[in-house]
Amino acid sequence: MKHLNRRTIAAAIAALTLGLSGLTGAAFAQDYPTKPITMLVGYNAGGQTDLVARAAAKVMSDALGQPINVVNKPGAGGGVAAKTLTQATPDGYTIMFHANSVVNNAPFLMKRITFTPDDFEWGGFITVYQAGLITQKDAPFDDLDGFVKWAKENPGFNYATLSPGARMIMSEIAKKEGLDANFMPVKGGGEMINAILGKQAVMAMSGGIHAKYPDDIKTLAVLTTFRQPSWPDVKSIDEYGYALSMDGRAGLMLPKGTPAAIVKRLSTALANAETDETFIKITGTANIPIMYLNSEAAKGEMMRTYKEYGEIYRKAGVEPR
Amino acid sequence: MAMQALINGFADVLNVYTILWICVGVTIGYVLGVLPGLGKATGIAVSIPLTFYLEPVAAIAMLIGIAKGSAAGSAVSAILLNTPGEPSSAPTALDGYPMARQGKAQKALKMGLFASVIGDLISTVVLICLAAPMARYALLIGPVELCAILIFSMTFIGGLSGKSLIKGLIAGAFGILFATVGMETETFIPRMTFGLLELDDGLPLVPIAIGMLAVAEMVVQAGNMRQLDKETAQIVESTKPEDRVVLWSDWKRCFAPILRGTLIGSIVGVLPGLGASVGSFLSYGATRRASDFPEEFGTGRIEGIAAAESADNAVVPASFVPLFALGIPGSVIAAILIAAFVLHGLTPGPRMFQEQPEMVAAVYASMLCASFILLIIGYTGQRLFAQVTKVPIRLIIPCVLFLCCIGAYMETGSIFAIYIMLAFTVFGFLAKKLDFSFVTFLIGYVIGPSAELSFRQSLQILDHRWVGLLDHPIALVFVALTAVILVVLARSRTRNINSLPDQTAGTNTTTGGNRETS
Fold this sequence. Notes:
The complex is a heterodimer of chains A (321) and B (518).
Chain A (H helix, E strand, L loop, with lengths): L1 H30 L5 E5 L6 H17 L3 E5 L6 H9 L6 E6 L1 H4 L1 H4 L10 E9 L3 E5 L7 H10 L3 E5 L2 H14 L3 E5 L2 H10 L5 E4 L10 E6 L26 E7 L4 H12 L5 H9 L4 E4 L1 H21 L6
Parallel strand pairs in A: 1-2, 1-3, 6-7, 6-8
Antiparallel strand pairs in A: 3-10, 4-10, 4-11, 5-8, 5-9
Chain B lengths: L2 H11 L2 H19 L5 H8 L8 H26 L8 H12 L3 H36 L2 H12 L1 H5 L4 H15 L2 E2 L6 E2 L13 H19 L1 H10 L6 H4 L3 H23 L5 H15 L11 H17 L1 H7 L5 H12 L8 H4 L1 H29 L7 H20 L2 H19 L4 H24 L11 H27 L3 H8 L8
Antiparallel strand pairs in B: 1-2
């Protein structure tokens, strides 16, 4: 009797919970959000992406009327945070702000990262990374062609590598032009800038941080498909004939299965950042250009770039490790 | 920085509003520092969003206050509980805890605070006067020089390994071994990650330090609970004034260590990639070596506290030198602060001085104020915290363990960090029981990755030719120094072993406890 009772109660509770969750499931798309939202960032606090994420969180929480807590979960270039995101309930209360490279770059470099654009919902992108090849202001060349010419006469030059992607770009240029490059590892953007300012390396790939040093550093080529706002006169690497350009964007990633209405809601809230005065000021001082893509455009961009960038890495003979 | 500008800066800062927020920052930092497991990096990262609503100068001053406060506060738990609030205060515990067990907790705490404040103040002045020129000089210290300096600092393992050099070296080697976990920097192949994504960026220092320093210590103390409680009952907080205050004779002994610590801390802070732990270990080691009684260190020498704490605090302002002058973060704190600076409209870097001189002056002035506020708050807070020595250990242990778990969890926000903490608790416990030095382990762990990276960079810069080293005189000096120290160390070891066969037994009794020497 006792057992039966307990079982009945348990079943009742289970039914109740199911019913309740079904109810909320139907209701929450309209009322969303009714409680604070957690925003994962896969980089350390204090970095460029973290800065944009926190500024965007502020704009979005104003628009949504609920606080957004930024939680830094660094590791594997965002891989750890993205994995956490895939395990989160797709209810719009766990979202992630990150660089899209974690999906359209990392899987081609790291064996244990197997994300595809289909593993997430895309809530829109707000900023782009102004990646470029950089050197000292007083270097004896002014563009990539000039560098190649100089490098042929100066074998054994030092190139600072921040990431596997950075290494791949110089390997490809060196392979095509027959250059003899030394790859000097650096950890983090700060150290990369150090290596250039301290003249330990003649060239480096920068993710965009070099925009802070206009008096000491010049850009030889930009690594995006478009010309960058901070250096409108600098040609892209594609224009130099190397077909290596990849666009890095930062924006919202959501767990697969997040209701379309919520994705739309977040995407619209993110759009406010485009015109928000504080957001413009913060990204402006850090030289991070705003280029908004809504959720559909973001999804399309991810599908296309995942294919294209995978091809670039495969052609370069880079295997995921 | 012109004097006039600084005076104007003070005019901007000396109002109730700003001073209040500096006090809040220093207090938060001090308390976080005292609590084992919680540290300044966590404190600042968590506080940044709170400062959105403050005036820019107050916000930045508050965050810097947190950094300064916690660097000083971490000495308190090191001295009273033998569990450093932050890894950088680990050397403070070596002499501070024995002093506290001898009833001289007040004196040890005061010296720790004074050394912290002096180191902090001088280093802040260094920052103000030399931000620009020093940063340019710091760029001369390239990877080749840094590599030589790091190899040189590894010789300190010899000086700090306690009774057995072999055990010290083994612990140091373990430290270096664990430091190799994670993505290899040149070809980006993951090493010893066992397929765990969480290990790609290496084993995080904070959970390791918490596990080895705090949790393991709590386990050891739990094992000795009865004994410790009996002792605690017996430790009569000495009422003799000479055990409660810092005497002139103490000052005389600590004067040189504090200055040396400040110098070492400032240099370590300016160099990128090192950090407070390296600073305090180097300073402790150097003071021990310079002392006439190196064998008495670890038994309650007040110079040990002075050396470690002055360097620990001096690192904080000095690490802002590359940040302010070049926009390059010299430490984790500085990196976190970049975001705060930018949010509040100040972009660190050379142009900051031309574009916003008033704001820079105000930040400088608030940093100086923070030093003095630290003295006041620390002095008041210590009386409160010193009562901890009277609390039975069975009440302390659960509180500390709880804080440790929070601290380990917070940095990366993952349970994985707590597993790492637990794993290293076992490691730390065994190390303590078998008398392996965790100090040399930490030196190996902290210096290992920088040494590897700078060595690989050096190979590329020198184009794999040893002769290239001749172009780097600073590096040559340190390589030569390393060789000299190795020889001196080896010779003094053999002499010591021959002449002082039972010296270790002697030091053990003077500590008055049955603790393992850490």
